[in-house]
Design goal:
Order of helices and strands: EEHEHEEEEEEHEEHEH
Radius of gyration: 26 Å
Structural class: alpha+beta
Number of helices: 5
Strand order of the largest sheet: 1-2-12-9
Shape: flat
CATH class of the largest domain: Mainly Beta
Largest sheet: 4 strands, antiparallel
Bound molecules: iron/sulfur cluster, zinc ion
Number of strands: 12
CATH topology of the largest domain: RNA Polymerase Alpha Subunit, Chain A, domain 2
CATH superfamily of the largest domain: DNA-directed RNA polymerase, insert domain
Number of domains: 2
Helix content: 10-25%
């Protein structure tokens, strides 16, 4: 298997080409990234005062969805914490406070930046995520407990905004049937096809949507079909900002490796038990 990283200017994105793999592995990688790589997110709220028009439950829900920067390897997943059994302790959680009061004349907004952590490495990834609006004299005071969790428990713990892949495209053409009409070129929404001397060229394979509009345009002439390169994939990952994308990828591969090892061990035990019974 080979991996080729595609350059991107966005620090939260990681795009790469995987060559020589298969659907099962690439989909397992995608699912591991989405649902197994842990991050910190607000789980419990100790509400001291809320005189805003926003219900307590909605405030708690909105705080839970604010991505928090998560130092890798510092916290244990709360549901797997042997120190507290998932109740929340210094090993698996961190405390943040929020205390905002509007003056007697103006309306004030409560933003993610108002969530103050007692650990400088754990902060909201963006300042301007709105939590509530306070009318004159209204107030929200609370303590928020952020716990380490996995996306399979709740989407708020997923480290990614999006994580997907698509097949690497390939032009399959019988140029002896090509009329040079350029209808496939005109049909392409990405403008990435060229017909030179009745041979179709895909100028930017990474931009191809595999939408098949070129194949459909060429249907009367039966010259062109947009196919895929077997075993090759274009993989896209965008972090919420909780973890750097390369760290998400690294963690996912470690988790996949450890699951494969667990499976191997379980299989060995099952096989030995079966052989003993056979004797
Ligand atoms: S639509 Fe078909 S026949 Fe026309 S230029 Fe494209 S490949 Fe050739
Ligand atoms: S599959 Fe769609 S995006 Fe790709 S070349 Fe054909 S028309 Fe363009
Ligand atoms: Zn704990």
């Amino acid at each position: 298997m080979e991996i080729e990283v595609i350059k991107t200017k966005d620090k939260n994105r990681l795009n790469f080409i995987i060559r020589g793999s298969n659907d099962t592995f690439v989909n397992a990688l995608r699912r591991t990234i989405i649902s197994e790589v842990p991050t910190l997110a607000v789980e419990d709220i100790i509400l001291v005062e809320n005189t805003s028009p926003v219900l307590d439950e909605i405030v708690a829900h909105r705080l839970g969805l604010i991505p928090l920067t998560t130092p890798p390897d510092e916290f244990t997943v709360a549901s797997e914490c042997e120190n507290c059994g998932g109740e929340g302790c210094h090993v698996c959680s961190v405390s943040l406070t929020l205390d905002v009061e509007a003056n007697d004349e103006d309306v004030t907004s409560v933003y993610s930046k108002d969530l103050i952590s007692n650990d400088s490495k754990i902060v909201p990834v963006a300042d301007k995520i709105q939590v509530a609006k306070l009318g004159p004299g209204q107030k929200i005071t609370l303590e928020a407990i952020a716990m380490m969790g996995r996306g399979k428990e709740h989407a708020k713990w997923s480290p990614v905004v999006t994580c997907s892949y698509r097949y690497y495209p390939k032009v399959i053409q019988d140029s002896s049937k090509c009329t040079g009409c350029d209808e496939c070129v005109d049909a392409c929404p990405k403008n990435i096809l060229k017909v030179i001397k009745k041979v179709v060229k895909l100028t930017a394979p990474l931009e191809c949507l595999l939408c098949d509009l070129c194949t459909k345009a060429c249907a009367p002439y039966e010259s062109l079909v947009m196919g895929k390169v077997d075993g090759d994939y274009i993989f896209f990952l965008e972090s919420t900002g909780a973890l750097p994308p390369k760290e998400i990828f690294k963690k996912a591969t470690e988790i996949l490796k450890s699951k494969a090892k667990d499976f191997e061990n379980a299989y060995k035990v099952a096989h030995e038990t079966f052989m003993k019974k056979k004797k």
